Each structure stands twice: as structure tokens, then as C-alpha cells.
Amino acid sequence: MNKTEQLKKEQILQALTKSLGIVSTACASVGMSRTTYYKYYNDDKDFKALVNDIGDIALDCAESQLLELIKEKNITAIIFYLKTKGKKRGYVEKQEVGQNSNTITGIKLVDDKSLKVGFV
Fold first, then answer.
1. What is the per-residue pLDDT across 50-84, written as a single tens digit (0 to 9) for each?
2. Sequence ranges of the domains in the chain
3. Residue 106 to residue 104: CA distance in whole angstroms
């Protein structure tokens, strides 16, 4: 790899870090086309690994913001966190289906082998 290409990769990595992984923003800030960026990304495994690490930094940032909202007792943030991270502790939404002899809520049995979907 030549020095110019290496410099461009370093510049785009810095720009990606500043933009929290937003490719369009990073490319625009260093004057690189998205095509060139994706060529580097697909052809250089080391570059790809560094880019993927930057994506993890952005995720860490979002998680820290979510945790700040939780500390502020934001109920939406709390519910979201429990639905995603608390699944193994039973914090999941379950769809309950009621049933009687020939009807399951939302589905009506027409005969033994066919179902007709409809409102019951």
C-alpha cells in the first residue's frame, strides 16, 4: 500500500471516530467517495477491523446515554432496557392467545384441516 492510501485510511478512521461511525459524514469531511471507502473496507481486513471497532464505540456511547436516562428515572428508557437486557430475568412481552372449543382469538377454525383468519 502506498503512503497516500495509508494517509487517506488514517484520515477516514479519524473522521469516522468523530462522526461515531457515520460513513457519509466521515467521507464528506475528508473528501473521499463512499465507493473508495467501501473498497478500503472490503479489501483491507485490518482497516475493516478498525472500522468495526469504531462502530462499537458508537454503541457504547448510545448505551451510556440510555443509562443516564435510566438514572434520571425515565420510564421509557427503563422499559426499553428491561425488554432488551432483562429478557433472561423474565422481562419480556408475551402475546397471549385465548382458546375455546372452536375459536382461538383472532383465528376461527373452519374445519379440521383449514384455518380462516378473521376477527372473532
1. 999 998 888 999 999 999 999 999 999 999 999 88
2. 3-89
3. 6
